[in-house]
Write a structure and sequence with these properties.
Elements: H1 2-8, H2 12-29, H3 37-62, H4 79-93, H5 102-112, H6 118-134, H7 138-154, H8 158-172, H9 178-195, H10 198-208, H11 219-235, H12 237-246, H13 262-277, E1 282-283, E2 286-288, E3 294-304, E4 321-323, H14 327-345, H15 351-375, E5 383-386, E6 391-398, E7 405-418, E8 424-426, E9 431-432, H16 437-440, E10 443-446, E11 449-454, E12 460-461, E13 488-490, E14 493-497, E15 502-511, E16 515-526, E17 530-535, H17 547-552, E18 562-566, E19 572-578, E20 587-588, E21 591-601, E22 607-614, E23 619-620, E24 642-644, E25 647-653, E26 656-664, E27 666-667, E28 672-680, E29 685-697, E30 717-729, E31 732-740, E32 748-756, E33 767-776, E34 779-783, H18 797-803, E35 811-813, E36 818-827, E37 837-842, E38 850-852, H19 859-895, H20 901-921, H21 956-959, E39 968-978, E40 987-998, E41 1010-1015, E42 1019-1022, E43 1029-1039, E44 1046-1052, E45 1058-1062, E46 1065-1070, E47 1075-1084, E48 1088-1091, E49 1095-1101, E50 1104-1109, E51 1115-1120
Helix pairs in contact: 1-2, 2-3, 3-4, 4-5, 5-6, 6-7, 7-8, 8-9, 9-10, 10-11, 10-12, 11-12, 14-15
InterPro entries: TRAPP_III_complex_Trs85 (IPR024420)
GO cellular component, one term: TRAPPIII protein complex
Length: about 1100
């Protein structure tokens, strides 16, 4: 009853006391039950609320006497606060009365701590966190436990503060509350630092400086972390070393409250074993897994040291722009190289054989890929690498702090086990073994790298064990004191990383002995004082070999940082250097440039069998004294794009270099050879030239060439990729039309049209035409005279050049100017021996017609024609084969049923019979083509073997075969231009060509396969008083086809002005190349001009009748002759 009086009198302290007594009475009515628990809790809640209000009034009235006026904690608690604290403690002891009310009790305890002293507040907050934990509010539990730790630390209760911080650490570890977690660790680190527990404080500070979200921590706090870390390492080395040993477990992120796992213990025990058996050894402080600087393990990449950066070898102008290229194209080129080399080793350059080898190579690669996928990690193995060949490790390194960090002596940490004696050389752990001081500054240099290598810090070598030695008896030694020296050397670098930035770091390591190499991590010095080590953690590939592994997403072992070091290997680099030291600014279609392939061996072993494979027949290696049957440009195989590079090296006498070259099949280490090549660009727009170099390890004096041995193992051969992107501008277009001559048998008229479409600049776009060359074995060419004479009404630029003092040896045509020249194609006489002839017709000049049979001086003109001819035939056959394979695969997929074994055997036997029949029928002969000059893709068997009667697919004889049935010619137009239009500028040389123009079709013809000519008098006088005039005429019908017969009908149409007497209609069949002469007689009754051509031929083709009328005029002028 008195509570209302206290309430009206605003005696809050007494009012709260009455409610407290009433609550206790409810509790005593049923101390073991929950009958009055609700009333009890309401009374206690009201009492605490009024105690808090009373405490606020007492605090305001007392003022500075009890402290806390500035917002801090009071040094002396008011009476009401003490009563509230007592009531809270009573409340927490009556468990039966607040059953299932842990959340409300925790809130009351937290609110009651607001006006308490630090010690009282710490007790209340700790009690409230316990109730939060029981109610399932774990984050509130950790938060209030963290505040309780701060209150204990304010009350100078260090042990209790450490206990609270540690209890809260488990909740925030591994969650998404990074800021709170870092705050908790910083508080715990400061607490341990003040308590003198330096080992655990070192762990926490090391984790703090490498945490994410460093920008949320003030710069002052970050500097304090670094300062405390350095002070611990300076003044408490023993404790710091204990803390560093606990950090070898990368997953130990709980401030040292979790015990180190077996891996951590084994690592530390290995260091202790070295110290135990090596008396002079000592261990320095090195902090692992600190993440400062932070290394992104997912960005790790290991590659062979790029030899292109091995020092400054002078300015080399490259041809075009270097690009990485497409991986699929590189794989196709590699398959083609292996296939052509295997076919060449068997003395067989047949196209079908090479295509079969390509299919086998692709099938083997697909099978190997499937086997690796099925086997998973069990099929993986370390990469095989060469001794004394530097490896480059690239990774991203960042600074998570807001202050700059200075890193020095950044180096790789590795372990190498020798394959000869099993000794281990490692730089793991900061274990120092004293050695010779003079040897520590020794440096190593290698041809393939421009860096200076040194022995890594803390490198040591295991002892040599005999048969009677026990494990661990002999001491480890320093490589400086060992006869074998270090097993590997590394390079070092210094780096300053700005706040919040990331940079790419490239470090190198070079193995000096054979064995198993594993790169385990990277170490550096922080602020040139503190050693820091980061072990690499690479995630292995997903295992797909079993259903359980796929379901559990199990991963295998990663071999990215592991290598198998074997014997020495060559390492070639290729630079494309322009001849004369100046490259062309622009590249035109058909332009021929002189370049030099500068090949350098930067490895440690000699290289041999250097071959070059390109994706287009752009390159030609000039040869002298080449026979017609020999390959062009040292080509291997029928593709025309695989060539063996002739290696020549300069000789020196008495220490003086001269210009004499000696042929050699081997490039020794440190040697550089130069191979001159001619490059002819084709196509339009941006073209990509892929160059794939293949070379092998030379085995002493015995060189295993691909011609006399099988393909070497993959560990003894290497590839070098180089892709160049070249913009090609238009220059000249060349077209030709062949028509039979109706004046003389077997002669033809060749009309060549040349148009200037050059567009690489705005002005000075002239092109100078040099000459027209015809390569053939059965025809020679003769330029028709007076084609640029003064009779033209409107002389062209080319004609004015000839008439008014321009250069007399070249014909210049301006932009978009067109010139058409006509030539007479004359066959050799039958009694003449078939010999390859290159007819040359200068467009302007007295010596416009010349021909020669010498191949020695004119081979470079036809080299690119031979290469393109061979490449086109190979590409056509390969494309047809791929289309056929795709069609079969589509049919198989549509059927959705596997083929029977008998069906597969029948198809295989039929294919083999077709191949054998084709090879026997085409042995040493070319395949007939159509009248457009392109050869059939079915005729792939140019020759079998390399007998004396055979010839290479890229040879002159294959371009102009000795078979008389292959009546084709090759047209070549050479031209020149100036790079900028001035005569004193560099001259650009080029050529365009048309291949395999059919002079006489072999089996098919787009037009009429027959030609007709007439032999008659063109003018005659006659006295018509004696009767009509009779004139004899002979009509010759000739079969243009070489091999196919033609059946036709000969018919004369009646004319009103004259009459033809003779065989007016008959049916006949002419074999290939045959002709028939039909004698006729023309009767005319008056004078005048008559066109005697009234002939119609009907050709019978596949039960069809195709009539042909000829637009020719056989003109006869008849003059009257009156007798007197």
């Amino acid at each position: 009853m008195v509570k209302d009086d206290y309430k009206h009198d605003r005696c809050l302290l007494h009012y709260a006391s009455v409610h407290e007594m009433m609550g206790l009475c409810y509790y005593l009515l049923d101390p073991y039950g929950t009958r009055y628990s609700r009333d009890f809790f309401n009374m206690m809640e009201t009492a605490l609320y009024n105690y808090a209000r009373a405490a606020e009034e007492e605090t305001v009235a007392a003022g500075p006497a009890i402290g806390g006026s500035g917002g801090g904690r009071p040094t002396l608690a008011p009476t009401a606060t003490r009563l509230a604290t007592r009531l809270c403690l009573v409340l927490t002891s009556t468990k039966q009365m607040y059953n299932n009310r842990h959340m409300e009790i925790a809130d009351l305890l937290a609110s009651a701590s607001s006006h308490e002293t630090p010690l009282g507040a710490a007790v209340l907050l700790e009690q409230s966190s316990s109730h939060y934990f029981q109610s399932g509010m774990y984050r509130k539990y950790a938060f209030h436990m963290l505040m309780a730790g701060h209150m204990f630390r304010s009350a100078e209760q260090e042990q209790h503060a450490f206990r609270c911080f540690t209890s809260a650490l488990y909740v925030y570890h591994g969650g998404k509350w990074d800021e709170l977690h870092n705050h908790l660790r910083s508080s715990l680190a400061a607490q341990l630092y003040s308590m003198g527990r330096m080992s655990v404080a070192l762990q926490l500070y090391a984790k703090l400086v490498g945490t994410t979200g460093g920008g949320r921590v003030s710069v002052r706090s970050q500097q304090k972390f670094l300062s405390h870390l350095v002070e611990i390492c300076r003044g408490f080395k023993d404790d710091a070393l204990i803390g560093a040993d606990r950090m070898w477990d990368a997953d130990d992120d709980d401030g040292g409250t979790k015990k180190s796992n077996d891996k951590s213990n084994s690592t530390v025990n290995a260091f202790e074993d070295v110290l135990r058996v090596t008396p002079d050894a000592m261990r320095l402080l090195e902090i692992p897994n600190m993440d400062l600087p932070r290394v992104l393990d997912s960005s790790l990449a290991v590659s062979v040291e790029d030899a292109a950066v091995a020092g400054d070898r002078g300015a080399t102008l490259t041809f075009g722009t270097v690009s990485p290229g497409t991986e699929s194209v590189w794989q196709d080129l590699m398959c083609s190289v292996q296939a052509e080399l295997r076919a060449d080793a068997e003395n067989n350059d047949d196209i079908e054989t090479v295509i079969d080898e390509i299919d086998k190579e692709k099938a083997d690669l697909a099978f190997l890929a499937r086997s690796k996928e099925r086997a998973g990690a069990s099929a993986a193995a370390p990469e095989v690498r060469a001794r004394m060949e530097p490896l480059t490790v690239k990774f991203a390194m960042s600074n998570p702090l807001s202050v700059q960090i200075q890193l020095s002596e950044i180096q790789l940490v590795a372990r190498l086990t020798s394959s000869e004696n099993g000794r281990v050389c490692t730089s793991e752990g900061a274990v120092v073994i004293p050695g010779k001081e003079g040897e520590r500054s020794k440096t190593w240099s290698f041809h393939s790298s421009g860096k200076a290598f040194v022995m890594g810090d803390f490198t040591r070598t295991s002892p040599t064990k005999g048969d009677d030695d026990e494990d661990g008896d002999k001491p480890w030694v320093s490589p400086n004191d060992d006869e074998e020296g270090p097993f590997f050397v590394v390079d070092k670098t210094n780096l300053a990383v700005d706040p919040g930035t990331s940079t790419e770091v490239k470090l190198s390591i070079c193995p000096l002995v054979t064995g198993d190499l594993e790169i385990v991590g990277v170490r550096c010095k922080l602020f040139n004082e503190l050693w820091v080590y980061h072990p690499f953690h690479v995630v292995g590939p997903l295992l797909q070999n079993t259903r359980m592994n796929r379901a559990n997403r199990a991963r295998g072992e990663s071999y990215l940082l592991k290598s198998k070091i074997e014997h020495d290997m060559p390492s070639l680099t290729v630079d494309i250097v322009p001849h004369g030291g100046k490259g062309d600014a622009t590249v035109l279609q058909g332009q021929i440039s002189s370049w030099t392939l500068r090949i350098s061996n930067l490895g440690t072993a000699p290289a041999s069998n250097v071959t070059l494979k390109t994706n287009a027949p752009w390159m030609n290696i000039a040869q002298t004294n080449r026979k017609e049957t020999r390959a062009t440009s040292h080509c291997i195989g029928p593709s025309g794009t695989l060539m063996r590079l002739p290696l020549e090296k300069k000789t020196a006498e008495d220490g003086i270099d001269n210009d004499d070259y000696v042929k050699s099949d081997v490039i020794s280490p440190g040697q550089t050879v130069e191979v001159p090549v001619h490059v002819r660009t084709s196509g339009g727009g941006r073209q990509e030239l892929y160059m794939l170099f293949r070379y092998e390890l030379s085995n002493g004096d015995v060189v295993s060439t691909a011609l006399n041995s099988s393909s070497p193992s993959s560990s003894k051969q290497r590839w070098l990729r180089k892709m160049i992107s070249v913009p090609v501008y238009p220059s000249l277009t060349l077209s030709a039309v062949l028509m039979p001559s109706y004046w003389k048998k077997r002669e033809h008229i060749l009309s060549i049209e040349m148009t200037n479409y050059r567009s690489d600049r705005q002005t000075s776009l002239e092109i100078n035409l040099d000459k027209i060359c015809i390569a053939s074995r059965y025809y020679r060419v003769q330029q028709l005279p007076d084609q640029l004479g003064e009779s033209d009404l409107y002389p062209s630029n080319a004609q004015q050049q000839q008439l008014y003092g321009m250069p007399a040896s070249l014909l210049q045509i301006g932009w978009q100017e067109r010139v058409t020249m006509h030539y007479l194609i004359i066959p050799f006489e039958d009694e003449e021996e078939a010999k390859y002839t290159l007819s040359q017709c200068h467009l302007v000049g007295e010596n416009s017609n010349s021909s020669g049979t010498s191949l020695f001086n004119e081979s470079e003109i036809t080299d690119f024609v031979c290469l393109e001819h061979a490449h086109e035939r190979f590409k056509t056959a390969l494309d047809a084969h791929e289309k056929e394979m795709a069609r079969r695969a589509a049919e198989q997929e549509e059927s959705n049923q596997p083929r029977h074994v008998a069906q597969i055997r029948r198809e295989k036997s039929s294919m083999e019979s077709e191949k054998s029949g084709s090879s026997h029928s085409n042995n040493g002969q070319t395949t007939p083509g159509n009248d457009t000059g392109s050869q059939s893709s079915s005729g792939n068997g140019d020759f079998v073997g390399k007998s004396e009667l055979s010839y290479h697919p890229t040879s002159i004889m294959n371009l102009c075969p000795p078979e008389e049935s292959s009546s084709k010619i090759n047209v070549i137009c050479t031209w020149t231009a100036f790079s900028s239009g001035n005569a004193e500028d560099e001259v650009i040389y080029g050529q365009h060509h048309l291949r395999q123009l059919a002079v006489r079709p072999q089996a098919k013809s787009k037009g009429c396969p027959l030609t007709i000519t007439a032999n008659h008098r063109s003018e005659i006088e006659h006295d018509f008083t004696g009767g009509p005039m009779k004139m004899d005429i002979e009509v010759t019908v000739r079969n243009r086809l070489v091999e196919s017969p033609v059946e036709f009908e000969f018919a004369l149409e009646r004319q009103a002005d004259f009459e033809l007497i003779g065989a007016e209609r008959f049916r006949w069949t002419l074999d290939g190349g045959d002709e028939i002469v039909v004698p006729l007689q023309a009767i005319m009754s008056s004078s005048g001009i008559y066109n005697l051509q009234s002939l119609r031929l009907t050709v019978f083709v596949d039960n069809l009748q195709v009539p042909y009328l000829f637009p020719f005029q056989w003109i006869v002028k008849v003059n009257p002759n009156a007798t007197i």
